[in-house]
Amino acid sequence: MSSPTDLRRLRGDRTRRAVLDDAVQEASVRGLDALSFGALAASAPVNKSAIAGLFGSKEQLQLAAVERAAEIYTEHVVVPARSAARGLDRVWALVRAWTEYSRARVFRGGCFFRTVEIEFDMRDGAVRDAVVAAQRSWEAYLEHQVRLAVAAGELAPETDPAQVVFEVDALLYAANDRSLLFGDDRVYARTIEGVRGVLAARGADLAALR
Amino acid sequence: MSSPTDLRRLRGDRTRRAVLDDAVQEASVRGLDALSFGALAASAPVNKSAIAGLFGSKEQLQLAAVERAAEIYTEHVVVPARSAARGLDRVWALVRAWTEYSRARVFRGGCFFRTVEIEFDMRDGAVRDAVVAAQRSWEAYLEHQVRLAVAAGELAPETDPAQVVFEVDALLYAANDRSLLFGDDRVYARTIEGVRGVLAARGADLAALR
């Protein structure tokens, strides 16, 4: 049987998660600096000081939001692509999952990381470091799959995997940013066409990519 | 001979320009919402209420900053490329000028428009409209040059100019954003390589592009 302490902790965990889910949505629109314990309390079952107690400082709230956003990103981009074979199929599945993640507005303001990268790119500190680490982690994963595609002969042996990742990411982020700015989601088709060009230039068999 | 009124107006124009030049630099780092008459007065020869008098409202200050930033952008990206022949040479010159404009930090926070596009992409209003118009104007100019390249036979007849612009812009913005986030300007070489790929895929003679 649970003790009163366990129950309190469980309730605290649930509240924390609910507040964080709200925080990452809000930050995707207005950025992490716009977060405040007071504003979050307006839609939470607990008051401002209880929320402050759960997170500590605003910076800790921001760091927790980056961590939670990374979980959501993994769940919507990385996990769905795991059913595809490693290498080129996985690269393609990641691109499809990413465009779907952005188009479906998993985060209300489009990709959470796009917003906070631009917000923190000129600053120093733990939040910027966390944002950079999340971006590096995604790039490393994508680059690993490109390397596997090269090793399997699905892409030309002279392929520079980091260059492919740079070009693919550029196209993904362009669709996200422009669909938001112009309110027009036809840009996702442009990203798909662009990525096909990037892969075709390295000898990929496009007919094999659905 | 200038009348006292003319002299006052001239002084007002000079002050307004100096404040605006300060404002666009600041906004490139922190965004347009972070601008305030008070903060701008700290580095201006006149006080806060004089600055408020020159601009009226904060929104008018933001609109004036977008207009001034567009002038600076034209001066650093469009004007230098005018010495190149229209069509493919001009497209290439624009790409080189853009990467130089971003790398040289003409705006302290990297491309002014990247920062404010992400800042305003989820809002309505006159500032967003001005930012969208500036982006559309740049795209239209670049697309026009791509069309001229197709018409001149420098790019394949089946080329979709809007797709080329989408891909080229994606690569330009990626270098800007990443050089800021990672503090590493080797990404500009990745953009140049990527754009060469985009043009080569449409049959461009890369040897002719310096």
Report on this structure.
The structure is a homodimer. With about 210 residues, the first copy, chain A, is an all-alpha fold. In chain A, about 70% of the residues lie in helices and about 0% in strands. Chain A contains nine helices and no strands. The first copy, chain A, has helices at about 5-30, 35-40, 50-55, 60-80, 90-105, 110-120, 125-150, 160-180, 185-200. Chain A is elongated and about 60 Å long. The interface of A and B includes residues 171, 178 and 193 of A.
Summarize the structure.
2 copies of one chain form a homodimer. Chain A has 210 residues and is mainly alpha-helical. The first copy, chain A, is built from 9 helices and no strands.
Throw out a few tags for this protein:
72% helix; 210 residues; homodimer; mainly alpha
Q: Count of helical segments of chain A?
A: 9
Kindly report the average pLDDT value of chain A: 94
**What are the segments of chain A in which pLDDT stays under 50 over at least 5 consecutive residues?**
none
- Helix/strand-derived category of chain A reads mainly alpha
Order of helices and strands of chain A: HHHHHHHHH
